[in-house]
Amino acid sequence: MSHEAVRVEGLSKIFDPDVRALTDVDLTVEEGEFLVVIGLSGSGKSTLLRCINRLIDPTEGRIWLFGEEMTGAEGARLRRLRTQIGMIFQQFNLVKRHTVQTNVLSGSLGRSSLLGTLLLRYSEEEQAQARAALERVGLGGRGRSRADRLSGGQQQRVAVARALMQEPRLILADEPVASLDPALRHSVMRHIEALNREEGMTVVCTLHDVDLIQRYATRLVALRDGRLVYEGRPDEFDADTFRDIYGTDAEPATSQLFGTDGEEATA
Amino acid sequence: MNGGLGRLKALVVDWTLTALFLLMIEFLVISFSGRRGPTGLLVTPEETLDLLHYGWIALGALVLTLGWQLVKSPVGMSTGWAAVYGDDSEESMPWTHTVRGWFAALLIELTFLTGWLITEVQLVTFLTQFNKATDIVRGLVNPSADVLHQGLVLLVQTVFLAFMATAFAIPIAFALSFFAARNLTRGTWLSRLMYTIVRAAMNITRSVEPLVWALIFISWVGIGPFAGVLALWVHSVAALVKLYSEQIESIDHGPVEAITATGASTLQVLRYGVVPQVIPPFLSFTIYRWDINVRMSTIIGFVGGGGIGYILKPRVDLGQWGEVGTLVILIAITVWAMDIISAKIRERIV
Ligand SMILES: Nc1ncnc2c1ncn2[C@@H]1O[C@H](COP(=O)(O)OP(=O)(O)OP(=O)(O)O)[C@@H](O)[C@H]1O
Ligand SMILES: [Mg+2]
């Protein structure tokens, strides 16, 4: 059990009035994995990720984080557990009017003094750590810019730096590159990969592009209509499995995804 | 079709319709007749009722309807007639062909007419007796310099009165607005209760006019500008809470999620996820509120709440139109200047 980052048992989520987003999901994520979650739009990927850090409360089921139970945790205990989970969003979700540096610093909110953070005051060590994090994602020197002055790719790298600042043991990344120019996707994915490889953070990431899946995932699971329907290694993942997971409705998309792009990545 | 009964029903409907028409016409005649009741005003509603000749109108309507039907067949294409002709298509008829349509039209007409009577509208007087007001207008265009100095001093007081009311309102409205925002108060039953209480209290406060608040605070702290400050303050808090909380409700929830996910506490989530998004619109609303408060503070003195209205009221009562003219011009310039300044600043912020 000590090597499990996340364990999910019998997880179900029903949104009001009765949208079944997840049905009886069992999932174990080993420490150090780069787990990619795939599935059609609406299959429940975001809901699964948000249940893990309790941005959404599950309807049924239990979740453990590094052996400690996440479900049922409230108040200070829930916040402490959350500090161990960094999250990266499709829409970056930076505080647009704050500087890049303050955005990175906000990763440390869970451990910094309340009064200081309310006044946007941070210690010199924290400032230095934030600058180093920005340096890591190639944005050293941009700390004083307002966050919304940066391009999409840069903003997502700031979000990665914020996660780095948080020093979590697990990263949840919900379609981290879906709203970026395809040419920029690797630049962001490589930084997330660095969190995994160099910082030893476990990563659970939802992705849509086959080439990215095959390039970054160490393991793959798929959701369909809120159920876990597939589990495998990325090198076993081909057009046939894709069709199995997505159903024959996704046929045109299959040929598109496994076009020239996909082959280059596998080669 | 049960012809006999249907025809009778149709006749009654048409007849009622015609009677209502005639009644309306008589209303019109009375209201435009310029007749005056015992109070010296235009006829009161009761007197109007006395003047109406129901019996004659009913008889007239009957004769009219029968005559019309002899010459030109059905009057109103009423429900009755539709029944007689076995025609169910009344739903799709234009309103002029249905009884309900005519009633709706009549109701609107009658509401307007009743309003005309109750508010004693006097078109003729309005159009012909302008000369009686020339004194005032002459005063207004020939302002007297006597009151200029005092007016300027009180004008400064007026602007500051509005400013202080706004300044005092900001922190309280700011704090309350978080409790009055639906999206932040879904969590616990306690927060939902706070939402309901704050919303209700603010709605009640806002529905009481500043002049009434001024009367309350004058008995509390005495006549003078401070009573005016308090009156505008209370009203501003309520107004700002509404504007602020609506702004909070329309924020982007992404940053809130991101900050929550770092393990931040509620206050930190508000400080990082909500506040930065709402500060510019809050500033804009606040300046707009100051602008409104300047307008209000010019008249809050009418009841003793300080500001320029305090010396304006007695001069109006005494008919010192030259001095009134000076004060009105001062007010107009101030309000106009505030309007421009506040618009300019708000443009910059958003
Ligand atoms: N807050 C909510 N309230 C109600 N229904 C929701 C809510 N969030 C998600 N759902 C529903 O739950 C289902 C799963 O949504 P989810 O966002 O998890 O899908 P997804 O796999 O992330 O899709 P996408 O690829 O489009 O992001 C969908 O049917 C969605 O409409
Ligand atoms: Mg999603």
Structure, briefly:
Chain A has helices spanning 45-52, 75-82, 100-105, 114-118, 124-136, 152-166, 182-197, 210-216, 239-246, 251-257, 260-266; strands at 4-15, 19-30, 34-39, 60-65, 68-69, 85-88, 170-174, 202-206, 219-224, 227-232.
Salient structural properties:
heterodimer, A: 267 residues, alpha/beta, Rossmann fold, 6-stranded mixed sheet, 4-stranded antiparallel sheet, 10 strands, globular, disordered C terminus, B: 350 residues, mainly alpha, MetI-like fold, 15 helices, flat, binds adenosine-5'-triphosphate, binds magnesium ion
Which secondary structure elements does this structure contain, and how are they paired or packed?
The complex is a heterodimer of chains A (267) and B (350).
Chain A lengths: L3 E12 L3 E12 L3 E6 L5 H8 L7 E6 L2 E2 L5 H8 L2 E4 L11 H6 L8 H5 L5 H13 L15 H15 L3 E5 L7 H16 L4 E5 L3 H7 L2 E6 L2 E6 L6 H8 L4 H7 L2 H7 L1
Parallel strand pairs in A: 3-8, 3-9, 6-7, 7-8
Antiparallel strand pairs in A: 1-2, 1-4, 4-5, 9-10
Chain B lengths: L2 H30 L12 H7 L2 H19 L6 H7 L13 H20 L4 H6 L5 H8 L6 H32 L9 H19 L2 H12 L3 H25 L4 H8 L4 H35 L8 H10 L2 H29 L1
The complex binds adenosine-5'-triphosphate and magnesium ion.
Adenosine-5'-triphosphate binds next to strand 2 and helix 1 of chain A.
- SSE series of chain B: HHHHHHHHHHHHHHH
- Counted by DSSP, the helix tally of chain B is 15
How many individual domains of chain B?
Answer: 2
CATH topology of the domain at 1-84 and 198-267 in chain A: Rossmann fold
End-to-end Cα distance of chain A = 37 Å
Q: Return the CATH class of the largest domain in chain B.
A: Mainly Alpha
3D architecture notes:
The complex is a heterodimer of chains A (267) and B (350). Chain A has 267 residues and is an alpha/beta fold. Chain A has helices at residues 45-52, 75-82, 100-105, 114-118, 124-136, 152-166, 182-197, 210-216, 239-246, 251-257, 260-266; strands at residues 4-15, 19-30, 34-39, 60-65, 68-69, 85-88, 170-174, 202-206, 219-224, 227-232. Chain A has a domain at 1-84 and 198-267: Rossmann fold (3-Layer(aba) Sandwich), CATH 3.40.50. Chain A contains eleven helices and ten strands. In chain A, strands 6-7-8-3-9-10 form a six-stranded mixed beta sheet, sandwiched between helices. A four-stranded antiparallel beta sheet of chain A has the order 2-1-4-5, covered by helices on one side. Residues 259-267 of chain A have low confidence and may be disordered. Chain B is mainly α and 350 residues long. Chain B folds into two domains: 3-121, no CATH class; 140-349, MetI-like (MetI-like fold). Helices cover 76% and strands 0% of the residues of chain B. Chain B has helices at residues 3-32, 45-51, 54-72, 79-85, 99-118, 123-128, 134-141, 148-179, 189-207, 210-221, 225-249, 254-261, 266-300, 309-318, 321-349. The model of chain B has no long low-confidence stretch (mean pLDDT 83). Chains A and B meet through helix 2, strand 6, helix 4 and helix 6 of A and helix 12 and helix 13 of B. The structure holds adenosine-5'-triphosphate and magnesium ion. The site of magnesium ion (MG) has 3 residues of chain A, from helix 1. The site of adenosine-5'-triphosphate has 11 residues of chain A, from strand 2 and helix 1.
